[in-house]
Amino acid sequence: MIKVGIIGASGYTGAELARILCNHPEVEITVATSRQYADRPLSDIFQNLRGKVDILCENLPVEELCRKADLFFTAVPHKTAMDLVPVLLAAGKKVVDLSADFRLRDVAVYEQWYQPHSSSRLVKEAVYGLPELYRKDIAGCRLVANPGCYPTSIILGLAPLLKAGAIQPQSIIADSKSGTSGAGRTAQTGNLFCEVHDGFRPYKVGRTHRHTPEIEQEVSALAGQAVNITFTPHLLPIARGILSTVYATLTPGFNRQTISELYREEYGAEPFIRLLGEDIFPATQFVRGSNFCDISFKIDPATERIIIMSAIDNIVKGASGQAVQNMNIMCGFAETAGLGIVPLFP
Amino acid sequence: MIKVGIIGASGYTGAELARILCNHPEVEITVATSRQYADRPLSDIFQNLRGKVDILCENLPVEELCRKADLFFTAVPHKTAMDLVPVLLAAGKKVVDLSADFRLRDVAVYEQWYQPHSSSRLVKEAVYGLPELYRKDIAGCRLVANPGCYPTSIILGLAPLLKAGAIQPQSIIADSKSGTSGAGRTAQTGNLFCEVHDGFRPYKVGRTHRHTPEIEQEVSALAGQAVNITFTPHLLPIARGILSTVYATLTPGFNRQTISELYREEYGAEPFIRLLGEDIFPATQFVRGSNFCDISFKIDPATERIIIMSAIDNIVKGASGQAVQNMNIMCGFAETAGLGIVPLFP
Amino acid sequence: MIKVGIIGASGYTGAELARILCNHPEVEITVATSRQYADRPLSDIFQNLRGKVDILCENLPVEELCRKADLFFTAVPHKTAMDLVPVLLAAGKKVVDLSADFRLRDVAVYEQWYQPHSSSRLVKEAVYGLPELYRKDIAGCRLVANPGCYPTSIILGLAPLLKAGAIQPQSIIADSKSGTSGAGRTAQTGNLFCEVHDGFRPYKVGRTHRHTPEIEQEVSALAGQAVNITFTPHLLPIARGILSTVYATLTPGFNRQTISELYREEYGAEPFIRLLGEDIFPATQFVRGSNFCDISFKIDPATERIIIMSAIDNIVKGASGQAVQNMNIMCGFAETAGLGIVPLFP
Amino acid sequence: MIKVGIIGASGYTGAELARILCNHPEVEITVATSRQYADRPLSDIFQNLRGKVDILCENLPVEELCRKADLFFTAVPHKTAMDLVPVLLAAGKKVVDLSADFRLRDVAVYEQWYQPHSSSRLVKEAVYGLPELYRKDIAGCRLVANPGCYPTSIILGLAPLLKAGAIQPQSIIADSKSGTSGAGRTAQTGNLFCEVHDGFRPYKVGRTHRHTPEIEQEVSALAGQAVNITFTPHLLPIARGILSTVYATLTPGFNRQTISELYREEYGAEPFIRLLGEDIFPATQFVRGSNFCDISFKIDPATERIIIMSAIDNIVKGASGQAVQNMNIMCGFAETAGLGIVPLFP
Lengths: 346, 346, 346, 346
Description:
Strand order of the largest sheet of chain A: 3-2-1-4-5-7-6
Oligomer: homotetramer
Distance between the termini of chain A: 34 Å
Radius of gyration of chain A: 20 Å
CATH class of the largest domain in chain A: Alpha Beta
CATH superfamily of the largest domain in chain A: Dihydrodipicolinate Reductase, domain 2
């Protein structure tokens, strides 16, 4: 039984960590922080947690936090994470950081897309927390950079193909659609019910979304060459879920059968990846609330393109669930501990 | 570890039983039936279950079913249940029946609202499966009539008040709103996405919904007199959830404090009832996917009325979750076994 | 062709006035104000209006506004309206005020529910703008207090019955459900998509919602006695629409047929009231975007109660459409001018 | 004033024709057919039409239909249209056919994707009813093949670029997302509220959707060469709306400015196309209920791709609105007659 702390408990990913961790057999939530809701039970803010996680939110200096837990989830905005994490690590704590601050291995790229980085030394140490790619590195590390939601869905769909050279890296186009929880819980006109409901729209089109360099970093590493991709995010009128439809030109010689084998070899033993059969396509509603990533693909022979589809719950496999998976690996727990939640449908 | 069977696995309540039972520590699902989807994995029909409940649906005569499990959930339409249940009981099985066939203790009333009853002897034996009211009877029985979704939400809200004489029984008006999963999975124009989405409407107004006699049976028993209530169901553009707003005239002498005490005495130790504080009202989104019933109330002094509000997930506490709770009691398991699911929000 | 101004154009009711007025044969929108979006086209804020209402939003002192139009719609918060309206009237303008500031005829009641009133003299002059009840008074006035959305739906349902003494006034319970546009366009956590979507909840229960005294004022006037009602608002996960389910005890001697006649006599010639047939109930999706109020009722003989159901679009008949209807009457236009919009379904 | 008939009035496109035509200044709906709802008012099936279009549905042989109107909209499934249209034309009627039967100019292609064609002679005569491309041909014809919804959104986005050679035709990928009304009003499990709500999924991936050859026909004609495209449809949990995100490789020499000019030249005078400014992207909620097609684009210099986005209401510009626009052109009415409906937001 280890003690874990949630820093930034009043956002959707913080609350989701609480939802998952409260049924986890190996951990106890010993501290949850919120500036805005200090001294109020977390279950007052998220009434779903009532009777399950009634811990009081606290607003404590990081030094005091360190005394309260062994491992921390930092579910705070980028920049804030950068300032907290070094202190936590210095106190001998393990950290799973859900912000973007330690995801980009090239500090120059980080600074181009975000702002100056104050902990560039830790950037080198941090492990990109996609267990399906970096499980071994995660096992031994003390700082995991938990991947972004869009990158998780896109990279998991592409990895086996890129490793095998089955697609042409420069041809990749990722058309992604996300539920509104991805925008967070801050009150903004654009996220009001009336603005989002019964509608659909793209946003940050054409190399402007900050997940672009993160996706390109991993795609480039898998392809063994610098790759630019086209990535278009869209806003869905649903609470949870990302579906990415990814297009690429197939390398001659690959076909339905060989591609299927690539996926099976890579993911056959993965506990959270479900490979769907032929002509069964993923849907966000079938992964809702769970840590699953559902993947399938289709080849269009006339254009020699492959269409890869993947679905995740953006705040589970795309954030808090994956963070718990990373914690499990870091701490030597069963990787699936606490993550046996069945998707909720309908 | 007991063997359980789901008869009628291809409806929403059948699939929900599978979702809950697959993480239950004391049971194994050994048979699931579906006429329409025989020989197909249940997870083909409900893709959320993939990797969790991949059992093949079967279409077997009831005699063969009896060989496959110790306890059965009959998640079939009324009339069908009436024919199945006697055979299952005769074979020594325990049964939790999710249909309406054994809920009404007065066969004449049943026949007035449904059709002729072929097992009236069993009606007497069946226990109405609302654990908060009938826990002891459930413990010893072999046939539980699992309550309807609307009745569950309304009766749980009213019971402590009726027992204490705190409200005038003849003044009860229940204005209930249900998510669309309550209408089942049969393809009907009225339940199409485009007909329900972004809309709201009442239906079966004025003593025409079949849950009326069920509610009146329990309200009358609690009040110790024959009671007619007004009950209006409405269709919400949500998948899961019932919220009932119930109005009644307060008996002189009762006030906020004494009413609060009544609820605390009655429900303080109940694992699945959450009493909300003053001016915190229930919401369907905070019980989604869980077996909780959230209750609060407000008194309007100017009209001497009390407004009682309760929220449940109609296919969990209103159907499959309550069925599992009943099974737990019948079998001597921990009453909360398998039911620790935290509500999914957002 | 008269010149009209929209004061407060950047809220949902302001935008809705623009949507309706731009196709109105007798008016031209000559000014639209917004503090926040000054100097930006209204169609930048509401992209639906692009090519239809591209007028620039202005932030002008009220004295300058007076030079720009003949009639004004004040779609601003209460208190703000109170300060603007006297100036507009003093300049000889006509005003339809969509705020609550002139709806309550008793200033003491207003001050109990809102704040001190600075124009109590005008309160006496203002006409409550429910055309079905006050058409003649509206025709001759210069200041209309446009009714609240909930009151419109409830009063229209009750008026014929109260006038005829067909129900017992003290027995009235109004259970109302509103779409989220009723909460306005101000960014607040409680109105975020993720908080409202796929959920349902009551709010301001038990004589706490400010529409209570407005409803009671009109119900009392119709009943000829002081009446307290019970009113419970709920929040629906839809953008537009209010459905009110109203309960009352029937006066002996009235039945389905006589009640039907009361409605027909009262509303048979009304252009915006649609009386539905027996067992056809109103639904918000069938009035969406239109100025219609759909009404039907059902009698429950066992409890001697009548259940009255009414549906409106809260920002049309419940706000901007009714405001245009009032303008039409004030200006001698055809009452239906600009309001021929067919409800949008699905 | 001409007489028009709606054949197939009980589907969503039939009802939408009624919604639009009832406010059209030049036409009268004299007949509406439905097999299933014969002898019932259309407004019984679509309660939104009550008081607006109360015409009785009829089930008449086509010969009798011919006596009742001058122009017909055939809103029936493919194959059925093929049998009706020749009879209507032989009787001297004009026809706007909303089915797929006359859209594909190559009968062999039609027969490959649908079934044998019984009126191949008429295929040659029919004009593809996309007014922005074929206005002159539509003006003189008696049979218009009204385009499919997906093709309308995609072709309008691409046409100016293809005509100018600004993109490489073989690089086109169209990722389209449609509201559920596109699936029609037939009761099917897959279109139930609970299956679609709060979810998102692709379907008919990889050259299997029947709109593929229709899109390729028009793209090829515009490109002056045979083109294969990749087209992926997805199902949105909204009632109305299509948003297509189309990717193509830019021809060297074209940039933001020259592309903007191409669009302005082509569409600057079009009444139903709205070109959005830089970094303003289309959204389905801003065209809801209207005949507008909103278009914008973005260039990604790193990949030399252009991303074109277009939004329509699938049952207005994607079906019934475009059909009325075609009728207006065929009959010499103002092209915008009856189509001045402002998009409904929120």
